Amino acid sequence: NAGVTQTPKFRVLKTGQSMTLLCAQDMNHEYMYWYRQDPGMGLRLIHYSVGEGTTAKGEVPDGYNVSRLKKQNFLLGLESAAPSQTSVYFCASSYKGGNSYNEQFFGPGTRLTVL
Amino acid sequence: DAKTTQPPSMDCAEGRAANLPCNHSTISGNEYVYWYRQIHSQGPQYIIHGLKNNETNEMASLIITEDRKSSTLILPHATLRDTAVYYCIVSRGSSGTYKYIFGTGTRLKVLA
User: Fold this and answer.
1) Which has the closest alpha carbon to A61: A46, A40, A71?
2) A96 chain-B contacts, CB cut-off 8 A
3) Residue A81 Cα distances to A42, A85, A86, B41, angstroms
4) How many CB pairs under 8 A join A and B?
5) Which of A86, A102, A106 to mutate to probe the B interface, most B CBs <10 Å?
6) CA torsion sign, A105 to A36 to B35 to B32?
7) Could you check whether the bond before residue A8 is cis, i.e. omega within 30 degrees of 0?
8) I want to staple B18 with a disulfide (CB 3.0 to 4.6 A). Which of A44, A111, B10, B12 is the partner?
9) Residue B31: what pLDDT?
C-alpha cells in the first residue's frame, strides 16, 4: 500500500495564480484532512471531509477550497494565491472508527512558495 | 477539543529514557490522548494513544494521570533517530469529526 500520497511535492506560484493540490489514499478511509504548517508552528486544519461528496471548514479555511468527488481523493485549491499561503501542506486520512480511537495517517507534504 | 501544553524543548542522552510531559487540564471524558512525532519536515507519525489506562507499544509508553489532566510519553531507550518534534493531541473518540488541534509540540534532541 502506498498510504497517503501528495502531488506535487514542491511548487512555486506567483501572486494571483491558481493551483490544485492532490491527495490520494489507498486505505479506504472515510475521513480526509488538509493541514498547513508554517515555520516553527504546529499543523493547522484547513478543511476536512467525513465522506465522499462532503467537506467542512477547519481552523483556517479562508482562501482555500476543497472537493471530495471520489472517496480516495481530496483536492485542495487555491484560486488566487497570496504570499501568506506560503507553507507546507499536509494531507491526512483516517478510518471512521465509531467510538474507537482515530489514528490519522499523514502524507509527505507539499512545499508551496508564493512570490 | 481540548488544548494541550508542552515544554518547547528537551534534551536527552542517547540510551536514556526520554520523558515528555503534556498538560491537558480541560480534557473531557470521551477524548483520547494521542502522541505524534515529526522528524525534520516529514508528515507527522503516530506513536501511541490512550483514554484512561496506561499504554505501551513497541515505540513508547503512555502514562495518563488518574484525573486525566496530564500525561507523559516515555521513550525507554532514546536513540539519535528519536530526535524530532513531539505533539500531544486530545481528540474525541466518539463518532464525530476526529479533528486534531496541534500545538507547537516539544522539540526533543537526543544527544550522543
Assistant:
1) A46
2) 95
3) 22, 7, 9, 22
4) 67
5) A102
6) negative
7) yes
8) B12
9) 85
Round to whole Å and give the CA distance between B34 and B112. Answer: 28
Contact A76, A24 (CB under 8 A): no
How far apart are the C-alpha atoms of B9 and A71, rounded to whole Å? 39
Q: For A61-112, what is each residue's pLDDT tens digit?
A: 999 999 999 999 999 999 999 999 999 999 999 887 555 667 899 999 999 9
Q: What is the DSSP string of B30-97?
A: TEEEEEEEE-TTSPPEEEEEESSS-EE-SS-EEEE-TTSSEEEEEETT--GGG-EEEEEEEEE-SSS-
C-alpha span between B16 and B94 (Å, rounded): 36
User: What CA–CA distance (Å, rounded) separates B33 from B62?
Assistant: 9
One-letter identity of residue B29 = G
Asked if B35 has any chain A CB less than 8 Å from its own CB, the reply is no
Structure confidence at residue B29 (pLDDT): 83
Are the CB atoms for B24 and B4 separated by under 8 Å?
yes
Q: Do B45 and A108 touch (CB under 8 A)?
A: no
d(CA A53, CA A112): 26
Higher-confidence position of B70 and A95? B70
Nearest CA to CA, how far is B59 from chain A (Å)? 15
CB atoms within 10 A of CB A75: 19
Q: What is the pLDDT of residues A15-56, one digit of tens each?
A: 999 999 999 999 999 999 999 999 888 899 999 998 999 999
